[in-house]
Specification:
Blueprint lengths: L1 H26 L4 H13 L3 H14 L4 H18 L2 H15 L23 H16 L3 H15 L12 E2 L2 E5 H14 L3 H14 L12 H20 L1
Antiparallel strand pairs: 1-2
Helix pairs in contact: 2-3, 2-4, 3-4, 4-5, 4-6, 5-6, 6-7, 6-8, 7-8, 8-9, 8-10, 9-10
Amino acid sequence: MRYYLERTALTLIVILGLGSIDACRKKYISTSEDMAKHGWVLYETKDYINSNSWFRDATVKDSEWQDAYNGLGWSYAQLAGATAQHALLDSGIDNFLTGLKKPIDEWNEIECPSPNTKAGKIPCIQAEILAGLTFSYHAKGKDSKVIQYGSAFLDSTLSDESGLKVSGWEFSHDTLLNYLDLRITMAASYFAEGKFDSSVIQVSVVLDSLSSTETAVTDTTLVGRKKIAEQIKSLQEYLRTR
């Protein structure tokens, strides 16, 4: 009888314990950080529609969560590219701009992956927003904006712990997209704005980073400009398919 009572009591304790754990589990509510992280998981599988929805939910949960606006910007850009709907691209830009105004703190920031060990700590979300604006404005043909946000990107990311300029940014959710893509995009916009010397500088950085034996075309005469344009186009195609 005593054995039976002890066994019954033990069983009740186990059941109550499991019930308590289950109750705690049910009380857990996803945070905006959780939602944004899941949005990026979907983004990386190219499910841009559902990722966009999760990012939107994250901004509703916490209107100050910067990475949610970052995700909205990139997912809208991808949807715009797939559907050729410029309104979606505008929505992406609006969210990027909103994200820039949000606070950066230790709970709302991570470090970007970098192939260059000298790159130091890169403010990842801020850099991704600036890069996103650079590419989005390029898609809209707004070259002055490309130069504005591309320059801000370079100023904010390419310094090591000693303050020296280095290279190495990669998009944390698609490492095939990196600082070389941004620089060649800036080169194209500088060219379109008639700032040929600045365009040549960006091309030179790209070629040097690729350890290419090719040299940047520095002739800015009418004939030389055509060659610069061809070089930019060739590098854009190479970077896109590498």
